[in-house]
Amino acid sequence: MRVNENILISSLTTMRLGGPARYVLEVEKPEEVADAYGFAEQYNLPTFALGYGANTIGHDEGFNGVIIINRMQGISESITEDGVLLKEMGGEYWDNVVEYACNKGLTGIEALSKIPGLAGAAPVQNIGAYGQEIADTLVEIDVYDTTEKSFKTLKKAELEFSYRKSILNSTAKGRYFVISITLLLKSGEMQQPFYKSLEKFLDDNGITDFSPKNIRTAVSAIRADKLPDPMEIASAGSFFKNVYVSDEDADKYESKGYPVYRGKDGNKINSGWLIEQAGLKGQIFHGFKVSEKAALVLINESATSYEDLVKARSEITGKVYDKFGFWLEQEPVEIQ
Ligand code: EPU
Question: Which member of 122, 214, 255, 290 has the greatest number of CB atoms within 10 A?
């Protein structure tokens, strides 16, 4: 276990905000996870499990606690009657997992290509894009349970997945550290119908072979065109969640001319559309720019403080509320 002291959270997160963390521990094997939580207990400090920092925001005062970073890597596979079980350690970079699966012709996660972050973080907020979410293929995860101080396996049903949600970021937030995740993937092609923008890309480019590799190429191209690469441009991906409404409200808003997407996870009004209609695309608020390409993305152009983000967020959500009556919710989590 590597022990670091007083590390700026801005250097560990892609939004590049946040003061110093008292300790940052990097764990390279499962036993070290137990040691890391023991370390925090010994100093009586709170903990925060961090991955790649692509969906996490730091506060100006930093964190008087212990950040634990998953550095465990590796992918292994086993063939079963139902398909291929792919098990990856939590510290593996998520896109490496997708690439590995696509190269083997396995379908199930190809639409989740190029999502920044670690495999261990993927189930926490149930990552999703272009019609797939990790809940579709996840079988189980191995965790360290910080309450019972033991290693456990949690089955998919126990994780209670829904849109950008699982017990790991809600009812059991902070309790489990993800050691590894196991997915069940199958040989073959992604099922149609495709997500609108993916279908358009495939049509425009005359792609009729929907192999995992081809879908990966398509999704990668769509994302590269719209979403900033966090290594180059500071952001935390989609900064706001989409708005989910009841069936009754969906009908009501549709008749008013709002775009409503009826998916397997509920009726969605696209928050990017709401922000765009509120005239905020490309506008700068306290150093944060509402992306011209994808209005859900907030780009940190010149801000250096969390206080600026608080101001920008409240101005943007206030304007959307004034126009539409919806309060947008933030997607990234905060270290506190
Ligand atoms: N739209 C607009 N203006 C915009 C953006 C979107 O009008 O600026 C409308 C368009 O009608 C468009 C529709 O919204 O056709 C869907 O937009 P898009 O495909 O860009 O998806 P999204 O709903 O904005 C979600 C996820 C993304 C994910 C994409 C693709 C959330 C919060 N975001 O965005 O996830 O990549 O779908 O599936 O659910 C992330 O979570 O960090 C993230 C990037």
Answer: 122
Distance 129 CA to ligand 1 centre (A): 8
* Secondary-structure class of domain 75-187 per CATH: alpha beta
Comma-separated ranges of CATH 3.90.78.10 domains in the chain: 235-334
How far, CA to CA in Å, does 223 sit from each of 25, 35, 230? 32, 39, 12
Nearest alpha carbon, ligand 1 atom 38 = 129
Structure confidence at residue 120 (pLDDT) = 98
Annotated catalytic, 331?
yes
Question: pLDDT at residue 263 above 90?
Answer: no
Q: How far, in Å, are 94, 124, 180, 249, 272 from residue 266 at the CA level? A: 26, 20, 29, 12, 17
Q: What burial class does residue 331 get, using C-beta atoms within 10 Å of its C-beta: 0-12 exposed, 13-18 middle, 19+ buried?
A: middle
Please tell me the pTM assigned to this model: 0.95
314 SS3 class: helix
Tell me how long the chain is: 336
- The pLDDT tens digits of the residues spanning 70-121 come to 999 999 999 999 999 999 999 999 999 999 999 999 999 999 999 999 999 9
Fold of 2-70: 3.30.43
For the chain, what percent of residues have pLDDT higher than 70?
A: 100
The band of 254, judged by pLDDT with boundaries at 50, 70 and 90, is very high
Neighbouring residues of 145: CB distance < 8 A, sequence distance ≥ 6: 151, 152, 175, 176
Mean pLDDT of the chain: 97
Nearest CA owner, ligand 1 atom 32: 241
Closest by CA to 175, choosing from 154, 206, 198, 156, is 154
Q: How far apart are CA 172 and CA 176, in angstroms?
A: 7
